[in-house]
Each structure stands twice: as structure tokens, then as C-alpha cells.
Write a structure and sequence with these properties.
Elements lengths: L1 H10 L5 H8 L2 H6 L9 H13 L5
Helix pairs in contact: 1-4
């Protein structure tokens, strides 16, 4: 599920509706909040920080 979300975010347009929705819902904090439940899962940090955090930032 997390891999699918990461792929969806990677392929989305930065100025599109999906990116706006993910920003509004604060998807970054939601995904990064799962680090406590899954401390060994590196994909949580990758998707949360890199894709949802840095990747959805507007320039």
C-alpha cells in the first residue's frame, strides 16, 4: 500500500489536484507518524520525507 502511494505521488503533477489534496490532508505527517509502528520499514521515511515532503513542495 505504501509503495503504491509512493508511485502515485511520484507520477502526479506538482500543480495538480492530487498534489493539492495530499498537501491539504497533510499526508506527509500521516505517513511519518507510522515510523513508531514500523521502525524497521525504511519505505515509510522514503515516501514520507522524500516524496510527500520534498517532492510536493512548491517552488
Amino acid at each position: 500500500m505504501l509503495l503504491a502511494l509512493g508511485h502515485l505521488v511520484y507520477c502526479t503533477a506538482i500543480d495538480g489536484e492530487l498534489a493539492d489534496l495530499l498537501r491539504t490532508m497533510d499526508a506527509e505527517a500521516t505517513v511519518l507518524g507510522k515510523k513508531k509502528l514500523f521502525p524497521k520499514e525504511k519505505l515509510v521515511v522514503e515516501v514520507g520525507s522524500e516524496l510527500l515532503g520534498k517532492g510536493l513542495k512548491r517552488k
